[in-house]
Design a protein that fits this description.
Bound molecules: NADP nicotinamide-adenine-dinucleotide phosphate, magnesium ion
Low-confidence stretches: none
Largest sheet: 7 strands, mixed
Radius of gyration: 23 Å
Structural class: alpha/beta
Strand content: 15-25%
Mean pLDDT: 97
Helix content: 25-40%
Shape: globular
Number of helices: 15
Distance between the termini: 67 Å
């Protein structure tokens, strides 16, 4: 059992509260993993003040020099895959294979952003006037507050921290209460890289306790949040009218559309990866599968057969394909949605219960669940369940499928399985999402492309790709005449 401290001004420190919070293994709730600081608003304020003090020197450090320091971070971080994977599996519940995938994704995204440090400082433009040169400078914003969720405790933290720092901002990260260990390990690598004190700070604690301080403090000029739509839109409201730039990555209800001409086996595989990977707790998880009527029954039979083969258990066992869900609150919410689905008349095709026998008795295990005969107005077709529950809707034809896919307040990811290029092009144009796929799972992504949603799935610039640094900078247009 480790005791984790906040990391403020380059030092590991205790909260002034003197209180600690405990974290347990999701596959075995008797196993205490660590204790973290139960920080107070005063702790958070001190971290923000120190970040503000570190900003002038860091923002004036040449960008390639900042990138070189973060290269040192990558070197240290890059050797720790197994340590991170085991920590993520214990505190989040996902399988070791999934945790290793998260590590590699985080590394690749960080590497891409560090590489941007030599090319994204601005742009030049021609002038109408002789003897005048024009250019666009990109300048850092100031202190950035970064608030991260438990479902990708490493990847999301890296996706925010690295571009914020490369761009010259100083940061305070608040990780999710359920997954503190990964954040502490990440800051060990930042510390080892020799970043100047105060540039990157870590404050543990509850969002409900320190959230208002880290969101509304006047030093905060950038706020990047990943989490629920409810909390995210609340933050946007608190910041209305303030000069704090916001970036919100929120929930989803992501559709996978399967047309009659699709490769059904590949489509089933995508539904299983997207629906049950990380126990359905990706923001890009497939939660609605929309199937064209002609192949509906065949597809459903294949999907059920695939789901039957999913081995559920402790993610640290290499034979396991799906781990527990993350914590008691998730567990209860997901089981409640399953009950709602049964009550509103959807047909339970497989699963639909908690797994509490034998080795699963001590963890938050839920059987992979598929509902069929789901009507678009049902709660389970509309609300983000964020668990191992897939709902299957029948579409009359392609037009009906596109309409159903877009019939949601969310707009994060979508996918279409077809061999028809014209339909694929129409889907790409009409799908109301930030990430659109054809013949790939809804969760597929690469670091050089932007990541973020539309509608109630996001606000502000997306993360990653060119937008990673774009978000954490402002533009300044510069005109210079060479003769006074
Ligand atoms: P959540 O309650 O919104 O928590 C997310 C983060 O916000 C946590 O660090 C949390 O701290 C903090 N927080 C809570 N209340 C706050 C407040 N009033 N002010 C400031 N920060 C606050 O979300 P969750 O229920 O844990 O996570 C699941 C949700 O995240 C799902 O809806 C999922 O779709 C979404 N998500 C979206 C993406 C994406 O990229 N679009 C990625 C991952 C997850 P505590 O842990 O201390 O409460
Ligand atoms: Mg919450």
């Amino acid at each position: 059992m480790r005791i984790l401290q906040n990391y403020v001004g380059g030092k590991w420190t205790d909260s002034a509260s003197g209180r600690r919070r405990q974290s347990f293994n999701q596959a075995n709730r008797d196993e205490l993993i660590c204790e973290t600081q139960d920080s107070t608003p005063a702790d958070a304020e001190a971290a923000l003040r120190i970040a503000a003090e570190a900003f002038p020197a860091w923002s004036h450090t040449p960008m390639p020099r900042r990138a070189a320091l973060l290269q040192e971070f990558l070197k240290h971080f890059g050797t720790r895959e197994e340590e991170f994977a085991r920590a993520i599996t214990r505190e989040n519940g996902k399988t070791l294979r999934e945790s290793r995938t998260e590590f590699l994704a985080a590394f690749k995204e960080a590497e891409f952003q560090v590489g941007q440090g030599r090319r994204t400082a601005g742009a030049s433009r021609p002038s109408e006037l002789p003897g005048v040169t024009c250019h666009l400078r990109r300048e850092p914003l100031g202190v950035a507050t970064l608030i991260t969720p438990w479902n990708f405790p490493l990847n999301v933290a890296c996706r925010k921290l690295i571009p914020a720092l490369i761009a010259g901002n100083t940061c305070v990260l608040k990780p999710a209460d359920l997954t503190p260990m990964t954040a502490a390990l990440l800051f060990e690598s930042l510390h080892a890289a020799g970043l100047p004190p105060g540039v990157a700070n870590l404050v543990f604690g509850r969002g409900s306790v320190i959230g208002d301080t880290i969101v509304t403090h006047p030093a905060v000029k950038a706020l990047s949040f990943t989490g629920s739509t409810e909390v995210g839109l609340g933050i946007a409201q608190k910041l209305a009218g303030r000069d704090t730039k916001i970036q919100l990555e929120l929930g989803g209800k992501n559709p996978l559309v399967v047309l009659a001409d699709a490769d059904l086996d590949k489509a089933v595989e995508a539904a299983i990866i997207g629906g049950f990977g990380c126990s359905g707790q990706w923001c890009t998880s497939t939660s609605r599968v929309i199937v064209e009527a002609g192949i509906h029954d065949t597809f459903l039979a294949k999907l059920i057969a695939g789901v039957k083969a999913i081995v559920v258990g402790d993610g640290s066992d290499e034979a396991v394909k799906m781990g527990p869900v993350c914590g008691s609150q998730q567990y209860e919410t997901i089981l409640k949605f399953i009950e709602v689905g049964k009550q509103e008349g959807a047909r339970l095709a497989i699963g639909g219960n908690a797994l509490t026998e034998d080795r699963n008795a001590q963890g938050w295990f839920i059987a992979p669940t598929v509902f069929a005969d789901v009507a678009p107005e049902m709660v389970i077709a509309r609300e983000e369940i964020f668990g191992p529950v897939v709902v299957v809707l029948k579409a009359r034809d392609f037009d009906d499928a596109v309409r159903l896919a877009n019939d949601t307040r969310y707009g994060l990811a979508s996918s279409l399985y077809t061999r028809d290029l014209a339909k694929a092009q129409r889907f790409i144009a009409e799908s109301g999402v930030g990430l659109c796929h054809v013949n790939l799972p809804t969760a597929y992504k690469e670091p050089q492309l932007e990541f973020g949603g539309v509608k109630e799935s996001g606000r502000g610039n997306p993360e990653a790709g060119d937008s990673g640094i774009e978000f954490f900078t402002r533009h300044k247009a510069v005109y210079v005449k060479d003769q006074p």
